[in-house]
Amino acid sequence: MKALLINKKDLKYNINVIKEKAKKTETKIIAVVKGNGYGLGLIDYSKFLIDNGIEILAVATTEDAVALREAGIKEDILMMSSTCIEDEVKLLIENNIILTVGSKKSIEVADNLARKLNITIRAHLKIDTGFGRYGFVYDNLGDLVDSIKSVTNIKIEGTFSHFSQSYAKNEKWTKIQFDRFISVISFLQNNKIETGMLHICNSSAFLKYPNMHLNAVRIGSAFLGRIIISNTVGLKKIGTLRTTITEIKKLPKGYNVGYSNTFKTKKDTTVAIIPVGYFDGYNVKNYPDVYRFIDKIRYLYNDVKNLFKDKKLKVTIGDKKYRVMGKIGMYHMAIDITSDENIKINEKIDLDINPLYVDSSIRREYV
To answer: What is the model's pTM?
Structure first.
């Protein structure tokens, strides 16, 4: 049986580090719990955050927002995705979720429903400063001003945007986005439109740009200590996948191991089978989604090169490291334990793993 272990002491340490840094700029923390709570389990993780002083949660789907309410969570929940689908908006309103409105149509749908229900709903405005997904485009605000001035049942409690590459060494684009956002805020305020709580920083921007914290920051990966920029504040990595050895066998010299026949034993070899593979998130990286095109080319080149290179991925058992043999499968991998006859079936193994990539069917255990 496999389980994702979450070290409560280390997680609490990370939360406190982030709270102290936010305190210096008098900034509120919005904890983003999308992706099954970044892999830590949506409900348990959210409750842990709340128990440790976090007062605002944010999600990306209606399903997650409703699940948090059904679990008894009463704190503020921001739905970060703007939607024009009436049934979804109605469900969010019924569950007292703070909406995001990012288009004239989304504002109309929300306001019409609020009038029918005879209530005032809470919402944040989304501004697109160069990401290209949700939000009013920063240099075309006529629809926004007209829409906001026409509503009767929406209370704007915040305005936000999203950086597209705040992790990058080149800071130019991030500064351009920030300046665009501030210009929009000035424009709205000059038009007597309430902008409420202002937030644009994600985890990377929170750590890199204290001058951009504004009124609030949205923290996700930083709580897990799994950030793609330099860890300058000593955050601890959260997430260990515990498993056991399920099989031990002996293979002769010259025997293929794994898919594509990329590995062949050079001598008689003792092999241990571990029931963990790439489907469990082992050795999975997120770089294809977060780097520039040239970075993707470099990583693709390295991946191809490693097919022909004797790359030694290793697994730690006790205080020793053992080589992974061949390509990792969907659910299994083989390791060379020839040098140690004391390793037994059912021996426990802890693997460093990003919880975000661990299948939700695997049990989460807070220890």
So the answer is: 0.90
